[in-house]
Amino acid sequence: YPRPLCAWSTAVARTARLPSPRLDPGGFVAAMDDLVRVEEVQSVVVCGEEVLAVAPHADRWPNVWCGGPDEVSRLHDKGLFAEELAPLPVQGTRPPRTWRDPDVGVAAARIVKPRRGRFGDGVRVVSAGVAIRLGEDEIIQEYVVGEERSSLSWARDGALLGHVVYRPLARFPLGPSFAIAPVDGPSATERFAAAVAAPGLLRRRSVSV
Known about the structure:
The protein is α+β, with helices and mostly antiparallel strands.
């Protein structure tokens, strides 16, 4: 890209371009080593799916804000994450069995995706009335038509420190958004905190994400 995507942000003081952690994980780790050393970085706060590349090497860098590899892997598994949420009063969750039951996909359109998929890889839409055959590592999710919403949370040792719900303003064709804005109003954040933090999901698991 001609410029770093965050170069237009009013909250970013400096940027550095690193190899893709997805396409060049070794190059990403080596570049992180150099960046931490040259810039004398004191804390590494992971704000996206880079957590999957950082977690296995977190002991290389100072004060890394992410869980260990096992914890991150568990949270990234969409089937296990659904099981974590199922007992909580979170709208839209389903009992764990429905996430593996092909019969739930017959009456309406559904999304079928890998349990640990990233960046949309392996995602497919199955139309209503079409029988679904799941692979061993696939799950079913509801196909929701509407405006896209995403969320980002920071938790440290089981305590929820911050959460934001945001929407895309612009995105690459068939790819990620590159300009985002917070969703107006605190209601989404308040619902998240009440549904997840209060029942103790984070405290119970001592999650750091």
